[in-house]
Every structure is written in C-alpha cells, then in structure tokens.
Amino acid sequence: EIAATSLKSIENLVVAKVDADSEREIGEKAKVQGFPTLKLYRNGKFYKDYQGARKAPAMAAWLKKKSGPPAKELKTKEEVAAFVAENKGTALVGYFANKESSEYKSFLGSITTDKAFEAFAAAEVFTAGLVEVVPTVTLYRAWSKETPSVDCSGDCLKDTKGFVVGNAYPLVEEISGESWPRFLGSGLKIAFVFVDPKEEKTTEEVTALATRLAEKTKGKIKWGTFDGVKYARQMTMMRLPEGQKLPAFSMLDAASKAFYPFLGQNTEEELTVYALGVIDGSVKPNVKSEEVPKEQK
Q1: Which of 7, 73, 92, 281 has its CA 20 to 30 A from that of 104?
Q2: Chain CA centroid to CA 6, Å
Q3: Are 191 and 262 in contact (CB under 8 A)?
C-alpha cells in the first residue's frame, strides 16, 4: 500500500492488492508461492516477477523502472538533489557526454536487465560541468551517514555491477527473508557468519571482524550474519559439525551448490587465508546436491 501511494502520479500504472488466501483460485493461477508477492502485467499478460527486497521503496523503484523509461533525465544539480530526496536517499545517477557513448549504453543495459540494479531509481544526466569527471556513475545510499554517496569512473565503469554490489549495502548485513534475494542476486559467493544474537558483545565483535574481511574480499564474497541458534540445522547443512560452537563460518556458492565450511580458529589471519582461498580456488568445496533456497525465513 505504501508503494502504491508513492506511485499514484505514474500514468498507465495500476497497483492492485489481492488476498491470495481467500482468493485461492487467483493465487493458484498466478502461481503465488509466498507473501508478499509482486507481479507485473502488461496489456493483461504476465510480464515479470519482482524478486528484490520486500520493502516499499525498493518495490516502488522496480515498478517505476518497469513501467516507464529505465532512467529519468535530469539537467541541473537541483534536479539531481530533488530526485535523490524523492527516492529517500537511495538512487543511481549516471553522468555522460551523450547517449551514443559506450559507457551510457552499458549503464542503460545494466539498469534495464540486471537484478543487482533493480532496487535503485536511476537517472541520467548529460549536462556538462555538474561533475569533475565524465562519465561518472554516482550511487546514493541512505544507510551510510559517513559516505552517503560514492562515485564510479574510469576503470570502475568496466564493472558497474561489481561497484553496485560492493557499495550499495553495508558490507555485512543480516541474512533474512528481505535481504536473501539480494544475496542471491549479487552473483557472489555468500559467507554465512553464524552468531548467537543474545550474545550481543560477541556478535558485535564478530560482525566487526567480518566487516574487515568483507573489505578485503569486496566484489568477490558477500558477507551476512545469521542466527545460528534458531537455525542450527542450517549450520549442518552447510557442512559444519553437529554442535559447532558459535560464532561459526561457512560459505555458499549458489551457482554450483557447493559449501566451504571453515573449521579453523576464528582469527582474522586464518579467516583471511580461508576467504582468499575460496576466491582463488585453493580452498576446495564440499558439493551439496540439495537446491539452494529461494527464500530465507
């Protein structure tokens, strides 16, 4: 409902709510498997499922992109500021010389087709003099008070997905139903940091350790904390021993369904060797045949 309210001004877009519990026939026909589910239809026919974060701003940004131009053209610094504010401090703005440049075409392709960009409202700017370097892509991130925006230019533009994945969210965040699609959508190996949330001091310390490891492996591994008490079974599924003491670490390669359990001492030195070994292949995986879950409860 919040997302729908924010989209009232968009022409030719109607957001409808269906209670799939009471309207089971509709839910079954639409192949609804969980809640909330957002599906986009064009001209009365199913077009695409939303698979991003289950938050109103992310849903609204996705619908804006899919129902209109993928990027809004802006011309002044004031328009850029208003655009960022309108999207609650979370946006992606690209500055280019013209629409014929290869960087612009790459940017447009990424925001149109890549899941990593779906949570961000996007804008394009062709006005000279607004930034020092052209082309530049600026990522605005409301969660960071210290660096609310980060720039990508030069060689960085060769991998804008890596730039977004590495900078759009905190280096270490909780793995949850909301964030899980983002972890899977990153295309990176996923490091599970199993903690006991009741042990607040220990959890804080290990999160700080994981953040330092994430700095060293940015763009290669996505790190997240996970409740190892509530979901103890997940630890054994990820090849950690029964009764493993917390905190504990294991990694998942969703593409190959392989796990990389860490069985050493929880020191920064050993964990760095482990993480870098997973990246370069010197740490071998335990292959798992079970399907990787599409959702984390």
Answers
A1: 7
A2: 22
A3: no
State the Cα–Cα distance between residues 250 and 190, nearest whole angstrom.
8
Q: Which residues pair with 124 in a beta bridge?
A: 73, 94
* Cβ 133 vs Cβ 154: under 8 Å: yes
Q: Under a CB-based contact definition with an 8 Å cutoff, are residues 113 and 100 in contact?
A: no
* CB contact at 8 A, 53 and 185: no
Whether the Cβ atoms of residue 213 and residue 223 lie closer than 8 Å to each other: yes
Which residues are within 8 A (CB) of 58 and not within 5 positions of it... i.e. 6 or more apart? 52, 118, 119
Query: Coil, strand, or helix at residue 69?
Result: coil
**Grouped pLDDT means (10 residues each) for the chain, 297 residues:** 66 80 84 82 80 75 76 96 94 97 94 84 95 97 94 95 88 90 88 97 97 94 96 94 96 94 97 98 79 57
Residue 282 tokens, joined: 């010197």
Phi, psi of 140 (to 5 degrees): -100, 130
Cα–Cα distance, 135 to 199 (Å, whole number): 47
DSSP secondary structure code for residue 62 in this structure: H
Backbone angles phi, psi at 48, to 5 degrees: -160, 145
Closest to 185 measured CA to CA, from 292, 38, 31: 292
